[in-house]
Specification:
The chain is of the alpha+beta class. Helix content is 36%, strand content 17%. The chain has 18 helices and 22 strands. A hairpin with a 2-residue loop joins strand 4 and strand 5. Helix 9 (336-347) packs across helix 18. The longest helix is centred in the last third of the chain and has 29 residues, at 555-583.
């Protein structure tokens, strides 16, 4: 006879299996038995192709979207309408009742596994405050949420809730990124539940808005799914940091916030309601708040504005807001910078790659510093300095004109650079450097749907004469542009400064946000500044020419290693996530 505990376990497993079947059935209607993928369901008609890593995109299940009047002269966010049945699909993933169950899972630590946060303003700047406790019961967390007005954030939901884990994996497979994480965000409504105090304040009290986080940007692309309630979003029209890397993530400066808040700096605020989805590329400042019925919203049809004020028929503002944010993480693994680092790793196995750049004796280290180690760091330097420059904490582009641009550039700030058969302007070189931060199109969605209209090296097979690339043609062209940027913008003095910057990160404990795939030797960070300053520009150019020739000749092998490495990463991540889901009884299938 089965014990009562065994019967409960059996019923729980049976319920989870039924949920898994229903969830898979919902998405199989759109995905498994059709040509559409999940991203095509969320953003139909290939609209995400054009927005990818370029600009935010709003996908609504409603015939019109609701926008704020506070910045009424601002541009309306690019948007697309989708079938309303998706609202039911998204709401089936998780609900507020399930959140309490997640908080009851054993071993959760406040500030690590989940956070209670509340936006505060001090001296004109926004900050996020949170209670100091690390150990907190689920009931106490709910009390902070209900009575204290704190927003609740639960990290790594892809490892705590089976349906979210399945969706994260599907998005990862379609985008080809290194990993997709998911955080849950719950924010109280503007109806204050705090016990009434003395005085004549009306009750219940309606607050203007509630928000958990200060305005910020993310180092990952995000897809936001509104589950229940509603939230008013503010998103910048341009990135503060172009396709921000993790090590470039920081609090926006006052100047960046002023540009964001100035006219034209952000789209008109817009309301996410149940079933709505939002895509934001990494590096775009944004913020979100729950608001009340007096937020001054107007209905905006996707074909234009209909200046009819909200008549109050939407009561989602009375409910807490619940949304999921899926983080599309590239880190240092799936960008063109990463692809060049794989080329450098293979180059390091050749005789040319093993040439000594600085002897251990001169450097003050136990081992010699090889050129392929120095050039690996040079690639990361150019990715940051050449693309973002001074605005991201690096010297103004282009630095050290006597050493940069491979010696082809005169000291005039408007001069062009001749590299091979191409004449590139300063803007052209900066565009090539920025390619290093873009993701390599790997996932089935991107490979199938993205239409690349690029300027060189592609077939003119369109009736209008436009040039298109597909598959490895597109990858090879951006790969070549990235090689060109590194060869052209490398500078010994800039590399010396970059290593100094990395040492400062190491001293502050933030070096873990910076990574280079497959690089295990960090001896260069221990090299004295005096020795680094003795690097000769001509020697660096020679080493880079040798590397570039190797990288161009062995592109196919490099791409195979790149894919093999990412496959190993994915296998490890899936194994870890499966173990975590199994531990909480949420693994949908063995």
């Amino acid at each position: 006879m089965a014990t009562q505990q065994q019967r409960r376990r059996w019923h729980r497993q049976r319920r989870q299996n039924l949920i898994a079947i229903l969830f898979n059935l919902i998405f199989s209607l759109h995905v498994c038995n059709a040509d559409e993928e999940i991203l095509e369901v969320l953003f139909p008609d290939q609209v995400l192709d054009h927005a990818w890593e370029a600009y935010p995109l709003f996908s609504s299940v409603f015939p019109s979207i609701r926008i704020g009047s506070a910045n009424g002269s601002g541009e309306i966010i690019p948007a697309v309408a989708v079938p309303s049945r998706r609202e039911i699909d998204i709401q089936s993933i998780i609900n507020l009742g399930d959140v309490h169950k997640v908080l009851s899972q054993p071993g959760l630590v406040h500030t690590e596994d989940f956070q209670l946060v509340q936006k505060i303003v001090r001296d004109g700047q926004e900050w996020s405050g949170m209670p100091p406790e690390r150990s907190m019961s689920s009931d106490r967390a709910v009390s902070f949420f209900d009575l204290g007005g704190f927003s609740l954030v639960i990290n790594a939901m892809q490892r705590r809730w089976g349906s979210i884990g399945a969706l994260s994996r599907a998005i990862q497979q379609e985008t080809g990124c290194n990993y997709v994480s998911c955080n849950l965000y719950a924010t109280p409504s503007v109806v204050e539940k705090r016990p009434q105090r003395q005085g004549n304040d009306p009750w219940p009290k309606i607050l203007p808005q509630r928000s958990g986080f200060e305005s910020h940007w993310d180092w990952m692309d995000v897809i936001v799914m509104q589950i229940s309630g509603s939230k008013l979003w503010s998103v910048a029209t341009e990135s503060a940091v172009y396709l921000s890397t993790r090590d470039l993530k920081r609090k926006p400066t006052i100047q960046e916030m002023n540009r964001y808040l100035a006219e034209g700096g952000r789209y008109r605020d817009f309301l996410l309601r149940p079933g709505d989805v939002l895509y934001i590329p990494r590096g775009f400042i944004h913020n979100a708040s729950t608001v009340g019925p007096n937020a001054g919203l107007v209905d905006t049809h996707l074909s234009g504005i209909n200046d009819v004020h909200d008549d109050g028929d939407d009561n989602t503002w009375l409910q807490p807001s619940l949304h999921l944010t899926f983080g599309i993480e590239h880190t240092c693994e799936t960008t063109y910078e990463a692809l060049l680092q794989h080329a450098m790793h293979l180059y390091g196995k050749t005789d040319a790659g093993k040439i000594v750049a600085i002897s251990g004796e001169a450097c003050g280290t136990e081992q010699d510093i090889l050129w392929h180690h120095m050039l690996a760091l040079t690639i990361s330097d150019v990715s940051r300095r050449g693309c973002g420059g001074e605005s991201e904490g690096f010297d103004e582009f282009p630095p050290y004109l006597d050493e940069s641009w491979s010696g082809f550039c005169a000291t005039s700030s408007n001069s062009d650079v001749e590299t091979g058969t191409h004449l590139l302007s300063k803007d052209g070189l900066k565009r090539n450097a920025c390619v290093l931060r873009r993701s390599v199109p790997r996932g089935k969605f991107l490979k199938k749907n993205l239409s690349f209209h690029l300027r060189d090296g592609c077939r003119s097979d369109q009736e209008d004469g436009s040039k298109t690339c597909s598959g490895n043609d597109h990858i090879l062209m951006n790969y070549s542009a990235s090689l060109n940027a590194v060869q052209t913008l490398a500078s010994p003095r800039a590399l010396s400064w970059f290593l100094h910057h990395l040492r400062k990160m190491a001293n502050s404990g933030s070096l873990d946000t910076f990574c280079i795939p497959l690089l295990r030797d960090w001896n260069a960070l221990g090299c004295s500044q005096e020795a680094l300053d003795r690097l000769v520009a001509d020697e660096m150019r020679g080493a880079l020419r040798n590397f570039t020739q190797f990288a161009e000749k062995n592109f196919a092998q490099i791409l195979r290693q790149f894919e093999s490495h990412l496959g190993e990463n994915r296998h490890k991540d899936l194994h870890r996530d499966d173990n975590d889901l199994r531990a909480v009884g949420e693994l949908q299938s063995e």
